[in-house]
């Protein structure tokens, strides 16, 4: 009896028979779980935070998964359909319809919860600035007039949206790499990858992705590693045993690993193996819609509304109620808005081959600025 030899990633990287949809769903759900603790002022009680002694939390790991998956699928998408108009159209159709609807939903929820009367709320320039800036996708605003001012995590109306501008800029970087043919030339991509890490360490201010924030640097690396996995798919081996070792290191954090850069490759390898290796495949999940985007763009204002209505709520109870309410919105959003928009991608394709759907990255907040920012939310 011969021992099974681990296979190269390229053997599993084609088609849609994978767990990417499940990985994104679990990641989005994990963001809701973390925010249920963070928005009630209990972020140190979050299960993964306690398990790892504060080295990581479910929100931080979830958003890392989002960026890894996005990097892999965006690079794959461009290589399969190397057309700038098709690439841009696919990204716009994936991001903006859901984002625009999330901005409107956030305004409605915040207005209903505001201490400011509706007429004054709608006339306030801050409300219209919030809509205009948020829908642009290039920046976000946190506040709306009189909304959630007395919550444990005050004033912030949808803290889950801050990563979308980062995501869009990384898309632009991936497009540039594709146009320069780096995504088809492993040696050149790997050289550029290493040079980029060195340049980033030397002059982080040259990169327009808020490099002063530690988690943003890590998320940028996660996206680049996802693209690295696609470009080097013929050389990378997927092994369930190596994935188990990576998960063990993530959870138990030996030698005080904390959140140093080598934490990111562990998450990236774990994500790729679980998403693609047939031993982990759960094909039935792909028969449901891709509700993960809706879960993370709608959940935050719903959670803030519930916290305001029920001060001192138990975090896990908040998670259950918020997840159920958000899931309804996510299902409606997917079937009525997101999927119809994605069906328009074929109009921009040069051939019948169209790249895979790409899920935007997660919804976590950085450290710094006017409040204390945690790995999974501004708290």
Structure in words:
- The protein has 379 residues and is mostly helical.
- The protein has one domain (13-348).
- It is 58% helix and 1% strand.
- It contains 13 helices and 2 strands.
- It has helices at 20-38, 47-51, 58-80, 84-113, 118-123, 125-136, 163-179, 186-202, 214-231, 240-252, 263-276, 292-309, 315-342, and strands at 7-8, 237-238.
- It has a two-stranded antiparallel ribbon with strand order 1-2.
- Helix 1 (20-38) runs parallel beside helix 12 and helix 1 packs across helix 13.
- Mean pLDDT is 85; it is low at 1-5, 351-357 and 363-379.
Through-space gap between termini: 55 Å
Q: Taking all residues together, what is the mean pLDDT?
A: 85
Number of domains: 1
Helical segment count: 13
- The global form is globular
Radius of gyration: 20 Å
Oligomer: single chain
Strand arrangement within the widest β-sheet reads 1-2
**Helical fraction:** 55-70%
Strand content: under 5%
Secondary structure: number of strands: 2
Provide the succession of SSEs. EHHHHHHHHHEHHHH
**Structural class category:** mainly alpha
- Sheet bearing the most strands, described? 2 strands, antiparallel
Spans where pLDDT lies below 50 across 5 or more residues: 1-5, 351-357, 363-379
């Amino acid at each position: 009896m011969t021992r099974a030899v681990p296979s190269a990633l390229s053997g599993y990287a084609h088609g849609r028979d994978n767990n990417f949809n499940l990985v994104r769903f679990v990641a989005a759900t994990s963001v809701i779980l973390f925010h249920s603790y963070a928005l009630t002022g209990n972020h140190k009680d979050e299960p993964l935070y306690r398990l790892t002694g504060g080295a990581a939390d479910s929100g931080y790991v979830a958003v890392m998964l989002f960026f890894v998956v996005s990097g892999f699928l965006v690079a794959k998408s461009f290589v399969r359909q190397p057309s700038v108009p098709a690439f841009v159209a696919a990204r716009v159709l994936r991001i903006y319809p859901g984002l625009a609807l999330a901005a409107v939903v956030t305004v409605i929820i915040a207005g209903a919860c505001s201490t400011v009367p509706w007429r004054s709320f709608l006339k306030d320039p801050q409300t219209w600035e919030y809509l205009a800036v948020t829908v642009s996708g290039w920046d976000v605003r946190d506040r709306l007039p009189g909304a959630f001012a007395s919550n444990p995590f005050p004033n912030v109306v949808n803290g889950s949206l801050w990563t979308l501008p980062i995501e869009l800029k990384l898309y632009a970087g991936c497009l540039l790499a594709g146009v320069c043919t780096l995504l088809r030339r492993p040696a050149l991509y790997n050289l550029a990858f290493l040079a980029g890490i060195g340049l980033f360490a030397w002059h982080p201010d040259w990169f327009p992705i808020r490099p002063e924030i530690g988690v943003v640097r890590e998320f940028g690396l996660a996206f680049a590693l996802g693209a690295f996995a696609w470009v080097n798919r013929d050389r990378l081996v997927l092994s369930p045993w190596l994935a188990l070792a990576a998960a063990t290191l993530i959870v138990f954090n030996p030698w005080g690993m904390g959140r140093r850069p080598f934490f990111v490759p562990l998450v990236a390898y774990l994500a790729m193996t679980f998403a693609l290796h047939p031993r982990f495949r759960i094909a039935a999940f792909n028969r449901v819609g891709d509700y993960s985007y809706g879960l993370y763009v709608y959940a935050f204002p719903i959670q803030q509304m519930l916290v305001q209505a029920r001060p001192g709520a138990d975090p896990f109870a908040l998670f259950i109620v918020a997840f159920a309410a958000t899931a309804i919105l996510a299902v409606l959003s997917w079937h009525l808005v997101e999927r119809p928009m994605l069906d328009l991608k074929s109009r921009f394709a040069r051939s019948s081959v169209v790249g895979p759907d790409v899920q935007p990255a997660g919804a976590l907040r950085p450290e710094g600025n006017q409040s204390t920012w945690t790995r999974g939310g501004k708290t």
